[in-house]
TrEMBL record:
Domain spans labelled Peptidase M16 C-terminal: 210-385
PROSITE patterns per UniProt: PROKAR_LIPOPROTEIN
Organism, as annotated: Alloalcanivorax venustensis ISO4
The Peptidase M16 N-terminal domain, residue ranges: 68-200
Name listed for the protein in its UniProt record: Peptidase M16
Length: 460
């Protein structure tokens, strides 16, 4: 027997035997693998509403002396109206000043308490996050400061000009690289005049016209308590969570939930668009409207796409287009479910000389998958990988707070995570094929590209 480096022969033999004994517990058959599937995440999610109308989502987690707070508002770029970029600017200026507080006071106030504060703006939502120690002295001061920041932002003119100038410079720089340009062209093609159709960051034309009063009005309307979800995860009791939620809700402007957005419509025919750009690569995006948050086919579409293009090197697109043919540098696909729509998106990058072949092969794989679905062996492998990775999505409080905010914002059932895992385990090849046929038509997909010339397919 080969000895283990650094150990005497008798000890090495003992260690090797111990390791081999441990291996005996590893799953080695399909049945054992199934039995070893991670259990569905079980979170003790509690939910209620504050007096001001905010929805509260709470998970007690006493393992660490930390508290995560996330406010999720229906205040994303879909609420920009005729001022693209106003949601992003409003979000960016939260924390730049509040009544009686300068930007330095706010930054130093959170830092001195060991707390982290951040904001974010997306198509559906505006997000405000706080992570702090849960000990009352630190927690209470951090929450007090957060309440002042979200309740009385001053949107200073100098900060607006600075952030606006930075945003405009960013938009000008985007014209020098292909990725952002093709993404925006794809978004316009898929959504048109729908509120999802304009860039989240605004445009060169819209940003200069946004004034401080526009930010104040946007905050008053869309950062209202009745338009908010307050998610709490950490080492606090239900009573403490209720007090924190009430304090934050009380600090927000009064107001109701934003009206529902109209559902984005699917393209009814093949649409192609090309952006001329002097690059060595061609970027191609393919897709159409297919789903939305809460769609009954979410799980079969999710699992099916994992096999098609979402599973990295295990996916069909990567195996056939990249590994077997070498046509692309990278290729993947995904569904992006949102409140009022959710496109299927296939994206690839290829050398210009390979663009025609890469596009034709990718389209053929999609067409075949819609018609026939996956093989049984592919489905079983995907289930094991998905369930294994899902166990990590609630591994710590920062993961849980993200899940909690989404469950509350999209009004999903409190046992959504458990239901998802159960549906993944039960989904069949037939369900995936039927779901893809309901969601997608290979002859009605948008093809948007950027490069020296438009790639050609056999179905233009």
């Amino acid at each position: 027997m080969q000895t283990i480096k650094g150990l005497s022969a008798p000890v090495a033999v003992w260690v090797a035997a111990l390791l081999l004994a441990g291996c005996a517990g590893f799953p080695t058959t399909a049945e054992q693998v199934g039995q070893a599937t991670p259990a569905a995440p079980e979170l003790e999610i509690q939910s209620w509403r504050t007096e001001q109308g905010a929805k509260v989502m709470f998970v007690p987690s006493p393992a660490l002396p930390m508290l995560d707070v996330r406010l999720v508002m229906d205040a994303g770029s879909a609420r920009d109206g005729d001022q693209p970029g106003v949601a992003a600017l409003t979000s960016a200026l939260l924390g730049e000043g509040a009544e009686g507080l300068s930007v330095d006071d706010i930054a130093r106030g959170f830092e001195d308490r060991g707390a982290r504060f951040s904001t974010g703006s997306y198509q559906d939502m505006g997000v405000i996050s706080l992570r702090t120690l849960s000990r009352p002295r630190w927690r209470d001061d951090a929450v007090d400061l957060l309440a002042r920041v979200i309740g009385t932002p001053t949107f200073p003119e100098d900060a607006l000009e600075r952030i606006r100038t930075s945003a405009l410079q960013g938009l000008k720089m985007e014209k020098q690289v292909p990725g952002p340009q093709v993404n925006k062209a794809f978004q316009r093609t898929l959504f048109g005049d729908h509120p999802y159709g304009h860039p989240q960051s605004g445009t060169l034309e819209s940003l200069p016209g946004i004034e401080r009063d526009d930010l104040v009005a946007f905050h008053q309307r869309y950062y209202a308590a009745g338009n908010a979800v307050i998610a709490l995860v950490g080492d606090v009791s239900r009573e403490q969570a209720e007090a924190i939620a009430e304090q934050l809700s009380e600090a927000l402007p009064r107001g109701d939930a934003a009206p529902e957005l109209a559902r984005a419509e699917r393209l009814k025919e093949r649409v192609t668009e090309h952006v001329d750009f002097p690059s060595n690569q061609t970027h191609i995006l393919i897709g159409n409207q297919a789903t939305w948050r809460g769609h009954p086919d979410h799980v079969p579409l999710y699992v099916g796409n994992y096999i098609l293009g979402g599973g990295g090197f295990a996916s069909l697109l990567t195996q056939k287009v990249r590994e077997e043919k070498g046509y692309v540098y990278g290729v993947s696909s995904f569904f992006k479910p949102m409140a009022a729509g959710g496109p299927f998106i296939l994206q690839l990058q290829t050398a210009n000389d390979n663009a025609d072949q890469a596009l034709a092969l990718s389209m053929g794989i999609v067409r075949d998958f819609i018609e026939n679905g996956p093989a049984e062996a592919q489905l079983e492998a995907a289930k094991a990988n998905i369930l294994g990775s899902r166990a990590l999505e609630t591994a710590d409080n920062s993961d849980i707070i993200g899940q909690l905010g989404a469950i509350g914002f999209y009004d999903l059932p409190l046992d959504y995570l458990q239901r998802f895992n159960q549906r993944v385990e039960a989904v069949t090849v037939e369900e995936i094929r039927a779901a893809f046929q309901r969601a997608l038509d290979a002859d009605r997909l948008a093809i948007v590209s950027i490069g020296p010339r438009a790639p050609q397919t056999d179905r233009q």
